[in-house]
């Protein structure tokens, strides 16, 4: 995947790039600072706590089974993790499930949109047929973001509290091109 660099409205330099094992410490720090609300919206568990073992696997994904990206910013001369996105291939060559997470203070400024579009591009590049995500029914921001990028949203067949956002990745189709 291509690295993206841009400057936000406050003049902060941001970078979107693949997540690598060396990101463990900055990712861990960001997860520890995450609000209970964001933890729940991402992991669906109210008492979710960061787990080093799982994080080690997340920052070192098996390229055949997963893809992960990170967005970083410069803060007082050092790099900090602002957000991360990933997908897991649930049916090789066919379907992958995505998830996104942004640090609380960085939500609502378009970073999630960039991350989801980058995941769509990578899933399409890999020839996958569908990218989907499970989203809590009350997660207005994630539902709006998914629709904006071209996903259709339907009820989860087995859980009324969850919606399923799905995007067909026909080669050459580009539903995420609207702004
Ligand atoms: C959900 C999340 C990834 C969205 O990323 P973001 O960078 O905050 O979203 P964006 O700024 O790109 O917003 C995209 C669209 O969502 C909508 N949106 C954003 N915040 C919203 C809010 N609080 N309520 C309703 N809609 C909202 C807007 O339509 C926006 O598009 P616009 O700015 O062009 O109008 C981020 O808020 C987050 O990490 N939340 C906590 C964890 C989570 O919910 N993860 C998703 C699990 S799959």
Describe this structure in words.
By secondary structure, the protein is an alpha+beta fold. It has a single domain (4-177), classed as Aminopeptidase (3-Layer(aba) Sandwich), CATH 3.40.630.30. Helix content is 27%, strand content 36%. Strand 1 and strand 2 form a beta hairpin. The longest helix has 15 residues, at 111-125. The protein is globular and about 45 Å long. Residues 38, 41-42, 99-102, 107-113, 133, 135, 139-142, 144-145, 148 line the site of coenzyme A (COA).
SSE order and pairing:
Blueprint: E1 4-7, E2 13-18, H1 24-33, H2 36-43, H3 52-58, E3 66-75, E4 78-91, E5 95-102, H4 111-125, E6 130-136, H5 140-148, E7 152-156, E8 159-168
Parallel strand pairs: 5-6
Antiparallel strand pairs: 1-2, 2-3, 3-4, 4-5, 6-8, 7-8
Keywords: Acyltransferase, Transferase
InterPro entries: Acyl_CoA_acyltransferase, GNAT_dom
Pfam family, one: Acetyltransf_3
Structural key phrases:
acyltransferase, Aminopeptidase, eight-stranded mixed sheet, GNAT_dom, alpha+beta, 179 residues, Peptidyl-lysine N-acetyltransferase PatZ
């Amino acid at each position: 995947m291509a690295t993206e660099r841009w400057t936000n409205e406050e003049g902060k330099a941001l970078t979107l790039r693949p997540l690598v094992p060396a990101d463990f410490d900055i990712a861990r720090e960001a997860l520890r600072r995450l609000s209970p609300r964001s933890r729940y919206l991402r992991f669906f568990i109210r008492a979710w706590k960061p787990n080093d073992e799982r994080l080690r696997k997340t920052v070192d994904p098996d390229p055949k089974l997963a893809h992960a990206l990170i967005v970083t910013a410069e803060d007082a001369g050092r790099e900090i993790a602002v957000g991360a996105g990933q997908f897991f291939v649930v049916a090789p060559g066919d379907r992958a499930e995505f998830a996104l997470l942004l640090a609380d203070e960085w939500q609502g400024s378009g970073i999630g949109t960039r991350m989801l579009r980058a995941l769509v591009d990578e899933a399409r590049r890999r020839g996958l047929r569908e990218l989907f995500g499970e989203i809590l029914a009350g997660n207005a921001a994630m539902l709006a973001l998914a629709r904006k990028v071209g996903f259709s949203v339907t009820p989860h067949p087995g859980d009324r509290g969850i919606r399923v956002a799905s995007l067909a990745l026909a080669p050459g189709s580009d539903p995420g091109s609207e702004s």
